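[job 0412] stage=fold_complex status=start
inputs:
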Amino acid sequence: MNTLIGMIPSILMIVSPILITAVGGMICEKSGVVNIALEGLMGVGAFAAAATHVLLEATGLGMPSIWISLGIGALIGAAFSAIHALASINLNADQTISGTGINLLADGVTIFAAQILFSADRTREFKMGMQTDSLGIYPTAYIALVVVVAAWFILYKLPFGMHLRACGEHPHAADSVGINVKKIRYIAVLSSGLLAGLAGGCIVLTQTIQYTSNTINGRGFIALAAVSFGRWRPIGVTFAAFLFGTAQAFAIIANNFPALRVLPTEVFNILPYVITLIALVVFSGKNYAPRASGKPYIKGAS
Amino acid sequence: MKPVDTRESFTSRMLSSDGAVSVLVVLLGFLVGTILVALVGKNPLNMYKAIFQSLSGYNIDNGKMNVRYIGETLNYAVPFILCGFSMAFAARAGLFNIGGEGQYIMGLTVAQVIGLLGPNVPGLHWALAIIGAMLIGAAWGGIVGILKAKYEVSEVVSTIMLNYVALYLSRIICLQLPGASTYKTANFPETALLSNGFFQAITNNSMLNNGFFLMGLAVVVYWFIMEKTNLGFGLRATGFNREAARCSGIPVVRSIAISMAIAGAFAGLAGGIVALGSFRYGRVLSGMDNYGFNGIAVALVGNNTAIGTMLAGFLFGMLKNAQALMQGKQIPKEITFIIQGLIVVFIALRSAIALYLAWRSKRQLQKEVLAK
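[job 0412] stage=fold_complex status=done
writing structure:
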């Protein structure tokens, strides 16, 4: 039991970035744009945060450097997601193709930039990552909590959130009552980029000491799974992120449990994906996804 | 009748031709890549020297010729082309197969298992391994098709999930193989390898192997199924309009499952060829090889046609082979990933062309009405 309680901080460390990204993906789909670029957006955010932190740390800035880096990571994530916004909102592009392109592009851009800045296929190592509080919990857990609560409040308690959800359910109806569908979808896509970039920064500053091409390792796709498994609702997405994050954590810490040591650690890596697949089959028929999700909005066309 | 302005109609013709737009998109990708290389203070000419060398084997800097580079480019192209077919085949039936990577990994895994444990009979051994790879690829794709057709599970989500299931499953399986360490297994017996002595002799010991023939065969099969059979017609009809296809008696559910299974078989074949053609030992994968993901780009550039996908696959093979040469000339090899990513982003943006053409024809109509 004590070991289980002792594990809570590391589980929170792994869950937080997945949850932050999943909330971003949820907001984006709620507005009617599917974002499978989350993985790539986390990557650029993580790289930007790691690179900024390494460079600022060298100037002797100290702790503020962490927070500035997180901010930069988030901003770069948002900037990168503008490509997806332009393609899927203004140009009626296929959102899956655009997302795939951004994922491929992010792979190249991050390591290319590392080659230019640090002459290696990874960023230089930084000395001090984010520090835990007296309970051993990283601040990222509190950030995630704030993000979830804020997203729930905005989406379900403010007029803006209702407008956003209307754009994802029935953009023509939303348009007819004077809601600016394009503007709202832009805000949603850019916030998903912002949150994914922030989450990337959280991963790199808490779980490792440098950015490599393996830093994100599918966690953007886990977040995407959490959105479907959580049925596009804040509480469901939170639950899903916890479930998947805990499974990920077990892949790393299963060695502490003699009973679990007989299983290959990969079993825990597989869990989130298999659970999502099963859930999608079990809940099929009832469609929880926003109805207009993934479809470009063409004014006037019915 | 008014004479048609030839310059105008030339632009529209170019913009409404899929092939021309693909060429444009690729050129645009290279252009932005070149600008990026120049911006970070490297000489873009070195990038093109590397690409030229991987294409022709000729080293411009010292005037030496090495045909091995040509062989390697052709060999690298094989999995790109086959994974491209995986994406393209599903796309023709109206499905977006992001799962090429998982189907590829499963093919690779089964080929490695049969390669290490199979019967050491010359001829039979590698054939069994390749067939096994295709079958598991077909199963891995077929699951997606069934989930889609029966339970309406989005193939985009399920293929992404299955990619990672495949990756970790492959690790679990390969770690049990003889001589497995954390990253490789024992060497394959000779009978399992796809190596071709003749190819090695004419390409100065490149890795080019019998997989090249299998790829050629796959091109013909792809073209034949799509253009010449009832099955292909049904698939394409399903892709164009699912409801209309259902109404005209085409079994849509079966069409979807079969098309995903065949798509998976192409990617599985790619995995089998890479496992037994390009390596002498089995690999315990720690990450994706990315052939499956790049196959999406290959099919998009090739407009899902047999010839177009093949040409696009050669382009990607050439870029991959140029990576090491670029690194030797102080050009970060990741520029090739950037160019590939840019190409896909530009393909997504090509929907702008349709908007532009619609806008222009509307304006022309307005002009004609006003002139009357």
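[job 0412] summary: The two ends of chain A are 58 Å apart (CA to CA).
[job 0412] exit 0
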